[in-house]
């Protein structure tokens, strides 16, 4: 198995893969400023300053594996005849090492303006092909917030990945401080964050908060109080009365505490070679 990073990036029809640099921070921060993008990742992006900090932290994390493992996460740009390395990024995709096993995990995400066109599947397929053809690893995992991100579960299925089991959220969370930051973000998102559907937000944010509480990030009673107060201040909540907000938020939060498992998918080099991911 190779321990050195390949100089060749994955190849895709509509995307250009390149290593993240510090010049990508502002564009990456703009992607992360959309609460719909960050609802299914571990991030805190409540203010422009936090978005920049989050982008810097994630770039450092995404680049950290290259020397040690021979793989990492790439910045993604649109492939166009007049494309330039200075074009703003539209997403990210690549592999990261984990604390819960030797198999690397695939990560991918896109700005909302680029959802729905199959780019996540294209990026992930190119990354997996790069890893197996380059002898980087023998299998690849995807750990997905299935309830919060059914789109990623669908991508995993298109890639030929098989759900191999579940992982406790407490085992997935890398550190308590990050968990506290993300909990603050979810409470902010429930009260002030932009959303496509307020009723969906009433489920998403409390459910994720419940996951975080299940990992010991904060207490149950005070967190639920903060969630309920935030939800009743959201500017899009006018057509949902307080009684309904109480019910939806409380049920979602309780479910997050109880059903605190993430879905784990895997594809092996052999399965890939046999065409399961085509």
Automatic annotation (TrEMBL):
Coiled coil: none annotated. It comes from the Bacteria. Residues 14-162 form the N-acetyltransferase domain. Pfam families: Acetyltransf_3 (PF13302). InterPro entries: Acyl_CoA_acyltransferase, GNAT_dom, N-acetyltransferase. This is GNAT family N-acetyltransferase. The lineage of its organism: Bacteria, Pseudomonadati, Pseudomonadota, Alphaproteobacteria, Rhodobacterales.
């Amino acid at each position: 198995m190779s321990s050195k990073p390949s100089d060749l990036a994955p190849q895709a029809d509509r995307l250009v893969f390149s290593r993240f640099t510090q010049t990508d921070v502002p564009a990456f921060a703009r992607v992360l400023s959309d609460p719909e993008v960050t609802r299914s990742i571990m991030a805190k992006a409540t203010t422009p300053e936090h978005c920049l900090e989050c982008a810097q932290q994630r770039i450092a994390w995404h680049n950290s594996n290259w020397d040690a493992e021979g793989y990492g996460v790439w910045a993604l740009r649109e492939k166009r005849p007049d494309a330039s390395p200075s074009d703003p990024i539209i997403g990210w995709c690549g592999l990261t090492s984990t604390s819960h096993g030797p198999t690397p995990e695939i990560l991918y995400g896109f700005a909302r303006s680029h959802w729905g066109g199959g780019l996540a599947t294209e990026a992930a397929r190119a990354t997996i092909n790069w890893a197996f053809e380059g002898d980087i690893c023998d299998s690849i995992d995807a750990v997905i917030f299935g309830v919060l991100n059914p789109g990623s579960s669908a991508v995993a299925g298109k890639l030929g990945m098989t759900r191999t089991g579940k992982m406790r959220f407490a085992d997935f969370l890398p550190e308590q401080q990050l968990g506290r930051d993300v909990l603050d973000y979810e409470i902010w998102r429930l009260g002030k964050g932009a959303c496509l559907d307020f009723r969906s937000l009433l489920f998403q944010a409390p459910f994720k908060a419940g996951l975080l509480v299940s990992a010991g990030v904060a207490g149950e009673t005070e967190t639920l109080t903060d969630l309920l107060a935030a939800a009743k201040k959201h500017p899009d909540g006018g057509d949902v009365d307080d009684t309904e907000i109480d019910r939806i938020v409380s049920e979602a939060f309780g479910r997050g505490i109880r059903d605190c498992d993430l879905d784990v998918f895997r594809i092996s080099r052999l399965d890939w070679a046999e065409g399961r991911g085509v």
